Amino acid sequence: MNLKKITVPEIVRMKKDGGKIAALTAYDYLMAKILDQAGIDIILVGDSVGMVVAGHSSTLPVTLEQILYHTQAVSRGVTRALLVSDMPFLSFQVSEAQTIENAGRLMKEGNAEAVKIEGGEPVAGVISKLVDFGIPVMGHLGLTPQSFHKFGGFKVQGREEAAAGKLLQDAELLEKAGVFSIVLEKVPASLAKRVSEALHIPTIGIGAGVGCDGQILVSHDMLGLYEDFHPKFARRYAELADEMKSAFKQYIDDVKSARFPSDDESYF
Ligand code: KIV
Question: pTM for the whole thing?
Answer without folding.
Answer: 0.97
